[in-house]
Design a protein that fits this description.
The complex is a heterodimer of chains A (about 120) and B (about 260). Chain A has about 120 residues and is mainly beta. Helices cover about 5% and strands about 45% of the residues of chain A. A 5-stranded mixed beta barrel of chain A has the order 2-3-4-6-5. Classes of the chains: A mainly beta (about 120), B alpha+beta (about 260).
Chain lengths: ~120, ~260
């Protein structure tokens, strides 16, 4: 299995809402942690988006969209517009969508040099 | 109109000169959180987040408004309460704009005070130039209403009327609303701890059986903190359907959601 679902890690609150919309679509009782490749980083409002690819259980490459807060709050938290770069290898945690679609609410990311963004305890 | 006359007389008799105005410069953030719950003091459970199932506040609602609130709470619990600000087109409105995430600026001038929210953005203009409320025929329902105030020492007193009310200006994602007949009296001042404190008394002959008292605080962020442009429609990949569902779009604008509520 290429990614792990860690159930009931309730301390890992997503860095997604509530600025713009309800976070009801995310299953906050589940956390997916996956090693992924960054395809695109959208440094935009009302949310930033980290577009990633990783291999599914069946071995097929899947594209997922991970949603974060807006640029302004994240900038004040230390994020920058080049925090994620295409081709970068990362480990990322997020709350998946309740309906199983390929998107999620960002929790945290760990980079190859050991540095992290978001919540990574 | 008796209130307006007395209010105006007070303003003229207690005018504060520019040199005496308080220092509210800098960038501020809300203290009370709970995902934006408007009245945190009556929120149950106390750590409940707006929009989560079972989370509500307890204003002194009339029977009719309690029914409206229950209906909204049911929608919120199902993840189908449409939040107007998710559509990126309208102001959060007053008094919700005192409970938003992101940061605030409070611009104090002798003739006006502006409350500017980064999220939205929203601007509340509070006139302290001694002018009165416009005549009824020159007022119409507005998201932030119309505010007239006065300074009493270091405290800004203002009254807000002519708010649009209803579901276009929910107070938070639990879905509470006020009616277009609501009025708000607000006192704002710095506390000894350096917080900016807003004490609101909300009256509404349709929604409230008695005045509702809500207090909110703001903390000053470190020097050098900046507010930035926030264009909500820049890349809104979360449109809201007529059924109140918040969708998620991919980079090409295609709906990602597997389940769409009709």
């Amino acid at each position: 299995m290429r990614y792990a679902i860690a159930a009931l890690i309730l301390t890992l609150v997503p860095l997604t809402s509530p600025a713009h919309h309800s976070s009801a679509m995310f299953d906050k009782s589940k956390v997916i942690e996956v090693s992924a490749t960054v395809r695109e980083f959208q440094w935009t409002n009302p949310h930033v988006w980290i577009e990633i690819s990783f291999a599914s259980d069946a071995g097929a490459e899947e594209d997922w969209s991970i949603e974060g807060l807006g640029t302004n709050s994240l900038f004040r938290m230390g994020w920058r517009q080049n925090s994620f770069q295409p081709g970068q290898q990362i480990t990322i945690r997020f709350n998946p969508m309740r309906d199983g679609s390929q998107a999620g609410g960002f929790i945290g990311a760990k980079f190859e040099d050991g540095s992290t963004l978001g919540r990574w305890d | 109109m008796r209130f307006i006359a007395v209010f105006n007389l007070l303003m003229l008799s207690t005018g504060t000169f520019a040199a005496e105005l308080p220092d509210w410069t800098g960038i501020w953030a809300r203290v009370e959180g709970n995902g934006g719950m408007f009245d945190v003091s009556t929120t149950r459970p106390p750590d409940g987040v707006a929009g989560a199932p079972g989370v509500r506040q307890y204003p002194p609602l009339t029977e009719a408004w309690e029914k409206k609130y229950q209906a909204a709470l049911d929608l919120a619990a199902a993840g189908r309460l449409p939040d107007p600000i998710s559509r990126c087109g309208t102001s959060a409105g007053f008094p919700r704009l005192l409970a938003l995430p992101d940061v605030y600026e409070f611009i104090v001038r002798p003739e006006q005070t502006w409350i500017i929210t980064e999220n939205g953005p929203n601007i509340a203009r509070i006139y302290t130039d001694g002018s009165d409320f416009p005549a009824d025929e020159d007022l119409w329902p507005m998201f932030t209403g119309y505010s007239v105030g006065r300074w009493e020492g270091q405290t800004l007193h203002f009254r807000t009327i002519s708010m649009i009310g209803g579901p276009q200006t929910i107070l938070d994602r639990s879905g509470l609303t006020l009616s277009p007949e609501a009025t708000v009296e607000t006192k704002m001042h710095l506390t000894d701890a350096g917080l900016l404190r807003a004490e609101l008394t909300i009256e509404d002959p349709l929604a409230l059986s008695e005045p509702w008292h809500v207090t909110r605080h703001f903390r000053r962020l470190p020097p050098g903190t900046r507010a930035y442009d926030y264009a909500c429609a820049e890349n809104n990949r979360n449109p809201v359907t007529d059924a109140g569902q918040t969708l998620t779009l991919d980079t090409e604008g295609n709906v990602i959601d597997k389940e769409i509520v009709q």
